[in-house]
Every structure is written in structure tokens, then in C-alpha cells.
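Aim 2, interim progress. The first record below pairs a target sequence with its C-alpha cells.
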Amino acid sequence: MPTRGGPAHSHVFDLHNPVAERRTRQVMWLTAAMMVVEIVAGTVFGSMALLADGWHMSSHALALGVSAGAYALARRHAHDRRFAFGTWKIEVLGGYTSAVFLMGVAAYMGFESIVRLVNPAPIRFDEAIPVAVLGLAVNVVSAWLLSTGAQGHHHAHAGHEHGHGHAHAHHHDLNLRSAYLHVVADAATSVLAIAALVGGRYFGATWLDPVMGLAGTILVGRWAWGLLRDTGRVLLDAEMDAPVVEEVREVIRELPQPTILHDLHVWRVGKGKYACILSIETAATLDAEAVRKALAIHDELVHVTVELLPPPPQTTG
């Protein structure tokens, strides 16, 4: 009969970051306030770049609300036993939803910029430029707030993250990253809006306004796609090309008894934390606990299930 080993560690997968949650809420309100200012100013002063940035900010305010809500839900249900591996993926789902919003923003900006390129409209540059500069300042402050949230996350995990000669690329907080990307995207479109308004005001290049909107579309679209790819990878458990998978295989190859690895499944259950199930054929002298101890050198493996299969019976001719 196969022998199954239970989890390698009793581990808490939900390492909540209250600093990131608080900073995300603060940035959400800042963004919402600036959104109103830019939409009104863009409409009144006739700037497509400013108006696009304002509507861009509106979706960011909504997406930041999703990120803040994801933190709150993950915290509220942290001890709910229905979540087999904790509530971390609520935050990842929040990041994925934010990325979808970001793609929608890019599409809207592209459409409106093309319309304005075909049908130019007068722009009140002297009034629009200060508003764009104010928007950039708000974005810089917001990026700083979220970066302090990331530092808080790092310090909160300092006691849990232990290196052993290599680093994995996905230890970061994808929900916080989504909020940060929304703010950085806002900052980039604000810079483009300022450049377009200055070029139109001093060089008569009014075509820069919609062209900068198109440039912002491409930039924001690339960031959104990257975030969709990274969060989707986690949500779909597409982790079998992660470095930890080869590390598990290497440990099994180096076991003192000859073994054959028949089956291996690895997926992420937290920020830089993985669970795995493996089925190996080996001699009866090797038990599941010995396999788990061998794998324990990799701190990111927080839940390990081992199935031991006996070698096939020898047949005599």
C-alpha cells in the first residue's frame, strides 16, 4: 500500500501587511480627489491629454479600491477554515482585477486620442498645464506612500524569509504591485500630458496632445499585460517552471536510496511559499519523513505531501 506523508510544516500562509492596506486606502482617496480635478479641468480647458489622464485616474481609483478591498477580505477571512491554504489568493485576484481595469483604461485612452487626432479641438494651455503638474505631484506622493507600504511588507516578513543561496522572482506582493503600477501609469500619463501641453503652448504643436495619449495607451497596455500574466500564472497554478520545481527534483535524485519520481505537483500558496505533492518509487527502508526532511532545506516549501510506492515485485524466469 502507498504511504502518504502529511505537511512538512505547520505554517501560517496569510502574512497580512497592514501598512500596505492602509497606504493603498490613502492613495485611493488621493487619486479619487485628483481624478475629479483633472476631469473637470480637461473638460473646461479642452485638453484631451488632461481629460484622458483624469478618466485614467477614475479607473485607477476604482482599481485601488479593489486592491484595498482585497486586503480587507484577506484579513477578515484569514482564519476561515474553508480556505485550505489561506486567503492570499484573494489579494492576487485583486491584482488581476486591477490589471483588467488597466487594460480598459488603455483601450479608452487609445480610442479618445484617435478621435481627437482626427477632430482637433482648441486647448486652454495656460490653465491646463498647472493642473497636469498638480496631477503629477499627487502621483509622486502616491508612489512614495505605496513604496513605504512595500517596505512595511518587507520588514513584516523579515522573520519568515530565509535565504539559502538563491532568490525567487515572485516573493513580491502582487496586490501591492498592481496598486503601484496604477500610480506609476498615472505618473507616466501625467508626464506625457505635461509634455503635450508645453509643446502645444510654446511650439504650436497641438497634435502632440492626442499623440501623447496614444503613447500613454501603449505604455499602460504593456504594464497591464505584464500584471495580467503574473497574477494569472498564480491563479492558474502555472508554477511547474518555477526554480523550486527543479530543486525538488534535485533533492529526490540525491536521496541515499535509489528512487524514481513518478509524479510531482507544485503550486504557490503564499508570497514566495509553495506546496507540493510528489509520488516516488523507492525501497521500503525510506520513509516519507526522511523525504520531507531532505526537502526542508528549501524554506519556500511550506506544505509537502509524499506518496511512497513500493518497487514492483521481482519476477523470476
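The second target in this work package is listed in the same format:
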Amino acid sequence: MTLSDEKYNGLREKLEKQNKWPNIYMFKFIMPADNKIMAQVESLFDDNATIYRKESKKGKYLSITVKDKMHDVEQVVAIYKKAEKINNLMIL
């Protein structure tokens, strides 16, 4: 088991205890203000997701909040694993 697996096992436990599925889940990210990175983030979610963008004061960074219907904990974990592969994206 890798450190990543341990981290996600903890997340799975918390999500199972705190939520009933399916559920609307909120993801949060911070990233440089870059259209390419934004497109990669948007591609993680379906067309029904609600995506909020907030630019930093100087416009160099974006705070992204995504609300999307998740069917189960494994769907949430799968999105986080894909998001980890996006360069310069910080997952909150």
C-alpha cells in the first residue's frame, strides 16, 4: 500500500461517515490563471457540474469550487486521483 492509498483510505472513511450517496459534493482547487489548466479541471466533471471561479486580486491565480453530483465515494476518489495529475493544481 502506498502513502497515496493510505491518504485515500482515510478520505473514504470520512466520506462514508459524513455523507449519504448519491450526494452533491464540493471540490476546491487553487491554480494559476491558465486556460489550459482550467480546461483540464473542467474535463474532470460532467456538464451538470456547477463551477465557480474567483480570481486573485492581481489576477495571477484562480480559486475554483466545483459542485457536482457524486454517486459514491469511489467517484470522488477517482476525481481527486485524476486532479493530482494536473500540473500546478493545488487540491484543497
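Helices lie at 3-18, 35-42, 73-84. This observation will shape the mutagenesis plan for the next reporting period.
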